Amino acid sequence: MTRTSILVCLLLWLAVPVSAEEARALVAGAIDLTRGTTSYAKMSMQIHRPDWQRNSSLVAWTRGREDALIRFTAPAKDAGNATLKDDEKMWTFTPRLNRVIRLPYSLMAQSWAGSDFSYNDLSRTDNLLHDYRLSLVDSRQQDGHTVYTIEAVPHDDAPVVWGREVLVLRDDYVLLSHTFHDQDDLPLKRLEAMEIGEKGGRVFATRMRMVKLEEPDHWTEVNYDEVQFDVELEDGLFTVYSLRSGAGG
Amino acid sequence: MRTSVPIKVLAQMSCRNLWRHRRRNVMLLGAIVLAVAFVLLANSLLRGWQAQMLDTVVANLTGHVKVLAPGYRDDPSIQRGFELSADYQPAVPGLDGWTSRVRVPGVILSERDTRGVQLVGVDPAQELQISFLADVALEGEFLASPADRRVLIGAALAEQLETRIGRRIVLMTQGSDGRNREAGYRIAGIYRASSSSLEKVFVFTGREVLQSLLDSEAVTELSIRLTENGQRNQAKDVLQRQFSNQEASTWDELEPMAASMFRFVDTAMLIWFSIMMAALAFGLVNTLVTAVMERNRELGMLRAIGMQPGILLLQVVMESLMIVSLGVLLGIGFGVLAVHWLSEGIDLSQWTAGIESYYMGSLLVPVLLPYDILRVLGLSLLFGLLASAFPAWRAVRVEPLDAMRR
Question: Does ipTM come in above 0.95?
């Protein structure tokens, strides 16, 4: 063995600390990154199907991971439809019906606004930390970053239907992909970062795509057109009242 | 009425009169036998259906009598539960088996689908004594104890969820504080019940397991199975006294739809009987009237030599009763034979999907009650008596002089 190959081996060994603590720290870091920060974003969403696709525009306000208000602005027939999230609870508002509906938990696994995202995808906060056993299975160098692959296996009594989830996370906590496997270990859906860039002074996945892996050509893409972080938000923004009154929009 | 002719002679005369027209009367007899046999068979099939209906309703977690908290039927939640002491034993007359359950609406999730179901927390040993779970075909394992932290789901539900034994599913429901509760559970077994609607509705787990998910010590129902359906009202009263703050109800109060169908069967039997007998009546009256009319001369002669009209009337009635009672007895005999021949049951599995909603299983076994035989017997004889009224009246009205002049 040459000296260089020994060095490479040593480096690889150093770079692959297969430890649960490490994985936990990475996930916690990614979660902490958004904790307590507020944001305002203008986004566009594209729902793609084999024979049609739909584009819509929306605005979103967030505070930490707990609170979010999302409001559609286009197309005209969806404009005003809004979703409010307060911790675990979610409400939707449809201006044409003038009704606020508190989402029953039974609907949380259903599709949000006809997209490939479920309400759960929007609402889960830090359950990765307490419902799963995390382990770091791989790390590699890519474009000047260390990229970690973390495997999350739900605890037996955890309220999680997936058999396994695989997260690919960059050392600056940018989530590159998140794959959901069923209990036969078939990948069912994957959230992928399509573009990573700097917007509003932060580096993150500015274009993300949720792909249904069992049905080809079924995906939904969300693109951040404009983002501001650490904005001043009214106290009452994340309330049912503001959801109904169309506040912020 | 004073009889001047002994009954024996009268009976002899009736017999001879019947024998004079053997062919006609044997055909009439055949019609009666056939009608009675069919009525009896139809009766026992309907009774079989009724018995099955009762069985199904009682086994579908209803029991003969059930104790529920007031308001549970309108809002089935754990808040409307009640505490039952650990050493409770129901002292109810005619007790066959009993259990307490926690039963709340919930949601079951797999990787691929979400379904609304009834979550039932059971004590497996007690449950097997009283509910349909004892008769299901089970793949995998049954729950071992009230603390068994696994679930039992129906085959139809497993198919919808695309899951199988050993897989984890998530159960979701509302806890005792009104907040959402959810947890993952492994599937112990998959059951195949007589109807797919049962399979889609009930998800079983240990009672203590469901209580801990709901964060409650309460149960939502106490279900009692009796040896005799007839004792249900008595048992209900006893339970109502024991649980003065709760509501005791019998199965027919809990399942009004099944109860009305149950009662309908009784009516259906009478309707069926009436239709058969009405058809028969034409044949019987026609034959008897013919018999009276062709004996016009003879009857006139009898009157002329001093036979009282009452005796004449009695004789026609006797003729009618003789042929009817012989027919009925033979009919009942053939009916009983037919029921015996069908005692294996009639296989209806071809139509299972359609008949489920009528509380029927795939095998219809006729049930013959002594009461039903007696009823057919009694009603048929009564009917024979009524059918002879018109011919007898015709016989009495014969004018001796007119009749003999012809």
Answer: no
